[in-house]
Amino acid sequence: MSNVIIRKAQLGDAEILAELSRQLGYPSTVAEVLERLEAILSQLDHHVLIAEIHGQVVGWVHIFTAYRVESSPFAEIGGLVVDQNFRGKGIGLELVIQSKQWASDQGLGQIRVRSNVMREAAHRFYQRIGFEQSKTSIVFSMQI
C-alpha cells in the first residue's frame, strides 16, 4: 500500500497500541502498555514499528532477537496487528518486510512467528507471504 508510512514506535503511541492489542485479543490498559513499551524500547535487540495512513496508526509489529542455548539467534515477531478496518490492504506485509530488514541488519538469518492454532486467517497470511510452518507446540504457563 503506497500511502503507508512505517516508523519506529514512541511512548506517545501507547494508547493506540493498547486499542490495537485489544483487537488482537490481549486487553491491556494504556498504563500497562506504556510500561511495557518503555522496557521494550530501551532494549537494542527489540524493535517496534508503527504503520500509519494519513497520520492514523493502523498497525504495529514487535520484533526481537531470540536467544536459545540450543540454536543460533533468530528474529521473532512477538506481535503483529493491523486495525480490523484496514486488513487486506498490504499493511501487515509492509510491517513484515520492514521487520525482515531490521532482522537482516542485526545479522539474523531467520524470522519466526508464533500463532495461536485458532487464528486460521493469520496462518493463511503468514503462509501467503512466505513463512513455512516449522513445528507445532503447546505452550504451558505457571503463575508464580
UniProtKB/TrEMBL annotation:
Every N-acetyltransferase domain range: 4-144
Record bears the keyword Membrane: no
Keywords from the named record: Acyltransferase, Transferase
CDD domains, per the entry: NAT_SF
InterPro entries (UniProt xref): Acyl_CoA_acyltransferase, Bact_Acetyltransf, GNAT_dom
SUPFAM superfamilies: Acyl-CoA N-acyltransferases (Nat)
Gene Ontology MF terms: acyltransferase activity, transferring groups other than amino-acyl groups
Name of the featured protein: GNAT family N-acetyltransferase
